[in-house]
Design a protein that fits this description.
With about 100 residues, the protein is of the alpha/beta class. The chain has one domain: STAS domain (Transcription Regulator spoIIAA), CATH 3.30.750. A four-stranded mixed beta sheet has the order 1-2-3-4, covered by helices on one side. It is globular.
Length: about 100
Amino acid sequence: MSPVALTVTGDTLQLSGELDFETVVDLERQGADWLAQAPQNCRIDLSGITHSTSAGLAMLLSWWRLASASGKQLLIAGMPPRMMALARVGKLTDTLPLADG
């Protein structure tokens, strides 16, 4: 398993590595903390994700709900093809604010 990293650059939260049931526990909290401080229009970049289980999608849904509840516009970009396939199976492509889906 490759280590997961969270990097903030301006209005963008960039993730890299693998999202699974173990890694999303800490990431979910870190992302929620970032969202509390994020600008009105913010972005999550998933282009560095090498693998994701459904736990990664659950984390994104949690972040999207937090952003929506605080009136922020969140955009999710760079979702890897296999993660996008999971989102399609779960019928989340119309729910999540995807830049490329």
